[in-house]
Amino acid sequence: MVKQLAVSLTLVASSQLFAQSLPIPAQDQFFDHIARYCGQAFEGRVTEANFTGIESFQENRLVMHVRRCSENRLEIPFHVGDNHSRTWILTKTGSGIQLKHDHRMPDGSHDDATMYGGHTVDAGWPNAQSFPADAFSKEDFIRRRTPQSVGNTWHMFIYPGEFFAYRLTRPGRELRVDFDLTQPVDLPPTPWGYED
Q: In angstroms, rounded to a whole number, what is the distance separating the alpha carbons of residues 90 and 93?
C-alpha cells in the first residue's frame, strides 16, 4: 500500500511538472508579437494617470525600444526624457512569463529599487498579459516602506500594427502609457548599465 501510494505521488508530481513546462500558445503569441519589433523604438504618451508623482512621465518624451530579443527573453528599455534608467525584462519561465523592472543609476549600478515585478498566473491572451506582484517584490516594497505597492499588477497589451501599452494598477491607482507602433522613431541611447 505504501509503495503504491509513493508511486501515485511520484506520477502526480511528474504530471504537474510536465504540465507546468508545456508551451502556452497565448503567451507564446504575445511574446512573438513584441519580438517582431526587435530593433525598433516607438514614442508613447500617458493615456491614464489618476495620481500625482508621475510628472516626469507627462513632461518628457517617452520612448520604448525593443532592444534585445532571444527565444526566451526580451529586453525593452523605457526612456523618460534623458533618464535611461529603466528596462523591462520579459522572460519565459516554463510556467508563464515573468516581468522585471531593471532600474539603474547613471554609472550603471543597480538602483535601490530594482528587479521588482511579477509573473503571469493564467494563460492570458495573445494581445494582453498581466503580472501581479511576486513575493520578492512584495518583500522589497515593505523594505522600502511602500507597502501600498504590494497590490501592484502590471499589464502589457500589444496590437501589432497599432499600439503597445504598459499599465500599472492597484486599488485607487492607475497609470497607462500607449506607444504608437505605426511610427518607428530614431533609436534612443544605450540604457544605463547595458552595453551595445
A: 9
Q: How far apart are CA 90 and CA 148, in angstroms?
A: 24
What spatial distance separates the first Cα and last Cα of the chain, rounded to whole Å? 61
Helix (H, G, I), strand (E, B) or coil at 191: coil
CA distance 45 to 60: 9
Q: Does residue 62 come out as left (phi exceeding 0), alpha (psi in the -120 to 50 range) or beta?
A: beta
Q: How many residues does the chain have?
A: 196
| Burial class of residue 156 (count of CB atoms within 10 Å of its CB; 0-12, 13-18, 19+) | buried
User: Please, which residues have CB within 8 angstroms of residue 30's CB and are 6 or more apart in sequence?
Assistant: 97, 124, 125, 126, 127, 128, 129, 156, 158
Which ranges of 121-187 does DSSP label H, i.e. alpha helix?
Answer: 135-143
Q: Which ranges in 60-183 belong to alpha helices (H)? A: 135-143
Backbone dihedral angles phi then psi of residue 173, each to the nearest 5 degrees: -140, 140
**Top-level class of domain 23-185:** mainly beta
pLDDT mean over 58-65: 94
Q: Which of 130, 168, 139, 135 is nearest to 152 (CA)?
A: 168
**Calpha distance 156→164 (Å, rounded):** 7
Domains in the chain: boundaries? 23-185
Question: What is the mean pLDDT of the segment spanning 19-33?
Answer: 84
What DSSP character marks residue 149?
Answer: G
Q: Quick one: pLDDT band at residue 22, thresholds 50, 70, 90?
A: low
